[in-house]
Amino acid sequence: MQPPAPDPSKLMRQTVRQALLIVGLFIAGAVLFQPQLQAAGRWFYDRLGLWGAFLGTLLSDALAIPITFDVYLAAAVAAGRPAVPVLAAVCCGSLIGALFAWALGRKLRGRTWLLQRLERFQMRVLFERWGSTAVVIGAWTPIPFSVTCWFAGIYGLSLRRFSLAILHRIPRALITFALLQLGWVAVAG
Questions:
Q1: Do the Cβ atoms of 58 and 100 come closer than 8 Å?
Q2: For residue 75, which of 104, 102, 123, 37 has the smallest C-alpha distance?
Q3: 146-158 burial: b if 16+ Cβ within 10 Å, else e
Q4: Segments in 48-144 forming alpha helices (H)
């Protein structure tokens, strides 16, 4: 018997809670550690720049490195970096990382030992039931996006459908940046 597919409404509630938690932590950090956050954001962007945000996001979305693009967006807001170049770097990194993850998933097809380990994410049922919508769900929810992309490749989602679905990372980044910016301005002025 297959495990039940993750409930999309539950995932969306978790997503809203996650977004509120990220913004809440950022606001609390802005209240308590504004100079330190500004210094850390400036340090990151002065030393690693947009290429650092691009590469960090690419690696996170390709290989499940646990530093999401939210961190690079928060650093940019704290450092007072302009939105458009930061969002372009992060979104491009996310989309290219997702394509790498999908390609990796294609290479992993048929490796049953690995699939058994990864099945704890219950993605088979999600992809069987929702198809490319599973990638859209992964783009917005706490499910690690790279894992969603691996499974899209493993379960044979076409590159065309996959490419259209990963575009949902763009509004996710835009909304996250806007919420972080609003929180920072509300606290730091």
A1: yes
A2: 37
A3: bbbbbbbbbbebe
A4: 49-63, 69-79, 83-108, 112-118, 123-130, 133-140
From the list 59, 50, 58, the residue with the least C-alpha distance to 79 is: 50
Tell me the average pLDDT across 24-36.
87
Which one-letter amino acid corresponds to residue 89?
Answer: A
What confidence score (pLDDT) does residue 2 get?
A: 54
Q: What is the pLDDT of residue 146?
A: 92
Confidence band of 113 (pLDDT split at 50, 70, 90): confident
CA distance linking residue 100 with residue 96, whole number of Å: 6
Q: How far apart are the C-alpha atoms of 20 and 6, rounded to whole Å?
A: 21
User: How high is the pLDDT of residue 173?
Assistant: 95
Domain ranges for the chain, please list them.
Answer: 9-188
For position 91, what pLDDT does the model report? 98
Q: To which residue do tokens 């962007």 refer?
A: 45
